[in-house]
Amino acid sequence: MLTELIDKRKTMLTDSEQHKEKRNELNALASTHARERNQLNGQTRECVDEAQKHKELRDENNKAVQQIKVERNQLNEKANVLFEEIDSYKKEHGAISNSRGIKEIQKRIDKLEMDQQTRVMNTDKERELIDQIKQLKHQIKEQEEELEQNKEIHTKLQEAREFRRAASELHATVTEKAELAQQHHDLMVECYRKADKSREAADEEHRKFVEAQEAADAEHNQFIACQKELRDYDKVIGGIRKKGKKTKVNKEQKAVRQEAEQVFQQFRAGEKLTTDDILLLQRAKLI
């Protein structure tokens, strides 16, 4: 029975070590997934923060576009008023017959420039639009050159040109700000895309972390159960060994007692005792 218990204890000890080793491996794996998850969460936060910065810059540029557009439109309106007066003069004096007025041409230019700024088009289409704008501006220039010969409207023409020049500069700024706003918008979208990707990866690492941690906990519980059974085996085996040792001592004591009684009888019969005989009688507490 004792041998069987010792063998079972050895098997249990092996199982305990295996569960302990597996638990440690799974805890290490869980820690790896936790580090990866935390790193990815950090990347997500960085991407979101960067996206927010681009969003703010986009909104600032869009706000500037709206403000500058108001100023540009005001300047264009002032120029239009003057060009209307010039066109009225042309009609009255037949300066340029059967041709569109400067204001009408400029409105067409403004529309084309707005299309260039806001519409998505291929390279050929954009080049065609730019050519149209150039031709219309050339028409305005031709009319202005003819009108400049008239001293009556020379001052108005110069003033209108100045308003239009200033409006054109603001339009260039509008285009620049709009392009910047679009660039920051595209960067913002890209940052959010990266944030979504790293967030998904972090969620996957967290799932693996939980899975490994739960498996490690299960192995730990198995290890604890094995340790409890080992303690139970130790108690039983220790009890059996103690009982066997006590039985052996009792047998030895009984044999010594029997031998000592024989020597004691010899002593009573008058036989001479040796030193060993005396020591034997002392051990048996007969003297």
TrEMBL record:
Domain of life of the native organism: Archaea
InterPro entries for this protein: DUF7121
Coiled coil start-end: 19-92, 126-160
Keywords: Coiled coil
Pfam family, one: DUF7121
Protein name: Phosphoserine phosphatase
Record organism: Methanogenium organophilum
